[in-house]
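As a warm-up, study this chain.
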Amino acid sequence: GLGDGWAGGEEDGFGQRYAACADRLMGFLTLRLGCRQRAADVLQTTLLRAVIGRRRFAKVDQPVAYLFQIARNEAARQIRNDSRRVSTTPITGDLLWRWRITVLLVDGKVEEAIEAGRTILRLARLYEREPALVNGLAAVAVRGIGIDGINLALRSGPIPTALRQQLDNELERQENPQRMAHLLKTERAINLSALQGMFAQGWWIPWVGKGAQLDTIDFYDRLLPVLDRPWRELRPQIAQLGNTTHRTPFSGVLIQLMIPALQAALDAHYRQIATLRALRIVNSITAYSDQQGVPPTGLEALKLPAAATLDPFSGKPPKLKQTDNGRVVYTVFKKI
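Now compare it with the structure written out below.
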């Protein structure tokens, strides 16, 4: 093992095994500290402490986890030292959740950090119990905080298989392909109720109110059936929904004002689907690496459902890129 070989004098063997996990340690420290230079300094300190205590490795069952623990302790020491040199600045309530996960990770509580992230994801689903577009967008924002924290936790050290499976199940539930249709059906009811109230008192323009309500019904009748189409087909179709004849000029203006908001909401929805799928892939990649000792050669080795490995924007698998901070999973929303 890593420790046995080195304790017995096999420095070269230890060096090879250390190099195999050095990139993961570097990525972990960079994410933890937010600065590659500081991470490199802490990585050197980690190696130095491992050298000093090399005889302990012979008694360690999980030497890689032991190295991560050293790195975690050194990162925590660095953060504490930094906190003494900077003044405290106010943060928003949303960031408190993110900081809670960061604090747990600094303390080496990776499993608790994952659980905190899952709690945030479940909180996001509570917003959608009052199904309206504004609630859906609030859920997107809250869910994004959980995703960000879980992504950091997944790269912070070994995680039990059972917890990984629970996380994968939660990420699958969060995708919910019927979410936008559910939200927009309620939004339709809200729009119609608002129009009814708006024109209830004006006896001289009842035909404008009725025309606006009928045009709104027509608009949603054309919109809802196409929501299951891929994003690249759906977005231009929504833009075309405003280019139809309306019963009143008021209807035309109202619907033209609605379309950009709907497009923005759908963009946010699909971007989050892409992020959820990428996080499932990261979860599977880190699990594979922990079990096999090497990263997978491709997505097919992860044995995820085919739909979970598709970029909703391109319809193709997301891109994997090896960087100095580790392996990155990403999709391309818009080419600029």
